[in-house]
Known about the structure:
- This protein is mostly helical.
- It has one domain (about 1-135).
- About 55% of the residues lie in helices and about 10% in strands.
- It is built from 7 helices and 3 strands, in the order αβαααααββα.
- A 3-stranded antiparallel beta sheet has the order 1-3-2.
- A hairpin with a 4-residue loop joins β2 and β3.
Amino acid sequence: MSRWFGFITLFNLGQLNFYEYIFCIYPLRDPTVLPFRGALDGVRYLRKTYSNLEALNEKNRAKVLEHLNEKFGTEFQQNDIWTKNTTAVNQENYMRGHIYLFEGIVQYDSKTKVLSIKKREKIDFESAAYRNKRSNKGLISC
């Protein structure tokens, strides 16, 4: 379900990074409008309040993580967020891989670690789904 919410968030906000996904989208379990709106508000809050979480030093990471866990109702540890091979990182990679099946619609910048929509106003979902089906990549499932 969080993969689908990830795509909808990406479409609504134009881009999505690891921290936005992990704190706002990944915890969603209720596929209704109200929790999803809360997740969008959470992404906006992260962008306004913590625009560069990757740049935090060790000392500040603990304080910020405690605040984010409280704000978003999560229980992440520092290594969940700032280490490469964790469940949280794997979930974001999994979501990104599913969304990236829509070639030509999304792009990923490995330097900034941001997934973004290329041209929102001209998305042809049918063509993208057809290309993915023909290339045996499959379609996104919820």
